[in-house]
Amino acid sequence: MKAIEVEHLSKIFKVQQNRGGLKGALQDLFSRQYNEVAAVDDISFSIPQGEICGYIGENGAGKSTTIKMLTGILVPTSGRLNVGGYVPHEEREKFVRNIGVVFGQRSQLWWDIGVIESFGLLRKVYGVPEQDYRKRLDELVQRLDLGELLSRPVRKLSLGQRMRCELVAALLHNPSIVFLDEPTIGLDIIVKTEIREFLKDMNRQYGTTILLTTHDLQDIEALCSRVIMLDEGHVIYDGGLDTLKTRWGQGTRVTFRFGAACPLDRLRLLTGGLDVSWTADNELHAEVLVPGEVNVSDVLARVVGQAEITDIKITETTTDEIVRQIYRSGSAGLPEESVRAPHA
Fold first, then answer.
1. Residue 63: pLDDT above 80?
2. Where a domain ends, among 211, 246, 281?
3. In CATH, what number is assigned to the domain containing residue 296?
4. Are 116 and 171 in a shared domain?
5. How confident is the prediction for the chain on average, in pLDDT?
6. 132 and 265 housed in the same domain
7. Looking at the domain assignment, is residue 69 inside a domain?
8. Domain at 32, CATH number
9. Between 328 and 133, where is the model more confident?
10. Whether residue 259 sits in one domain with residue 241
11. Is residue 239 domain-shared with residue 257, that is, in the same domain?
12. Which pLDDT does position 338 carry in this prediction?
């Protein structure tokens, strides 16, 4: 079953074009000129029920615009979308009972009243029965350790405390689909880890579908098996995170420090037959690039014991590096030979 279906979705904004000088300013008062900007341009994808999907892109790529259309805040210029069986902007009252939304830079809690009072107001907004509300609230408060925060005004919470409360507010009515827009922005590593673990547990326990947008790719690695990548309003990649790493990762770099001179020719001879690439600063320091299809353990087995090694450092290509490469190229669909080139 598809939780989210998007077909040929577009959103075009009209942006006023200001003319320069005093004359131009006077002309703008009476006759304005506009440019059309496609924030989202003919995108299509679907997300099955129960999947955690990362939705990533640079600033201005169209991520937030997509989320706002999927949650019914914006009306699409063209295309079709269905979220949880509803067209968001047409059936908003019924639709919102089935979704939860967290915008990392905007709060859905009332600033000057206690957290528990905000939760009570949201219960009424969503029409959650008192008994169901109490059971769900107790579970969420315990899981996110909010007991001491419930009576505090939201304005007196730290950012990490507020974000945990925002998650509870979005989940009080037990939605089947949750949209998270930068949920860990500005948080320290401990709070980020707590929120990631909570989201994974929620997904496992309830089968909640999660669409996550973030600039923190550690969130994507920790939570998502699939990623949709957006650039200038277009989808440039939609697939598994492992596939992305295999296609774009430059492999593993293994750095050796030797206690005695080990010439580059000898290292190449030791690893003969393996498709690896050696470089060396000198005879005491060398680095080998191991492509994804070669086992690092095979390289180590051939070198360790045959040379006097004082230190070994193994470095994987990070998701951050891969994504930077893709955005520099403007496409995630490189042919195999282009991907293999760095290993030659």
1. yes
2. 246
3. 3.30.70.1150
4. yes
5. 85
6. no
7. yes
8. 3.40.50.300
9. 133
10. no
11. no
12. 35
State yes or no: pLDDT of 330 exceeds 90. no
User: What is the count of structural domains for the chain?
Assistant: 2
pLDDT tens digit sequence for 251-291: 788 999 999 999 999 999 999 999 899 999 899 999 998 88
What does the chain come to in residues? 344
Domain that holds residue 75: 2-246
Would you state the pLDDT for residue 75? 93
pLDDT at residue number 184: 82
